[in-house]
Amino acid sequence: MPSQTKENYLKAIYFLSVKNKNVTITELAKKMQVSKPTCNHMVKKLEELSLVKYQKYKPLKLTVKGKKIATSIIRQHRLTEMFLTQIMGFGWEEVHDIAEEIEHLNSNLFFDRMDEILGFPTVDPHGSPIPDKSGKIIKSKQVNFIEAPVGKQVKFCGFSKSSKELLLYLNKKKIQLGAVLSIVQIEKFDNSYEILINNDKQSTTLSYDACSCLLVTPLE
Question: Residue 38: helix, strand or coil by DSSP?
Fold first, then answer.
């Protein structure tokens, strides 16, 4: 198996390729928080291991082998986050850094058992899809909360982007994954959103920045 650092590079290339198919050394170096020469050196090592396809001035691409390792690490990370919240009682804002360490354990048996204990979940505590053992990711149709019609009920199912600060903010607002949300009105002065949570009679206010990070699915 590749080293932890190499696995992190593969994971980073995968995430960048999902957002933008043309992954460059500059983008990868920025995501990994290293210099371009350092990044370029590592990419060449990954190429030697047949994990990455790399040609000068052309986008980086994972090989089949490289993609399989990347999705396996993502699977192990998201299963770990789910285990930490559902079985060990951690908050969803606490689990990322711990999962970053555990995801690199080289034990299929360990993560298969974790998956079984959890009842084979399809998403992690933040709503991100968990790849299956073959690396396949099933994505549901989601829209940004700010695109939801006023007065229409939607289900909070994930994030377009997340941070520990955002998760703590949502904790204060008592908004958890799966909550039913509806927009009452949008404040013209600062673009903040007055919303209802789980059909509660008392509305609450969310900032535009927070709302723009939430992904939802319409309720029939």
Answer: helix
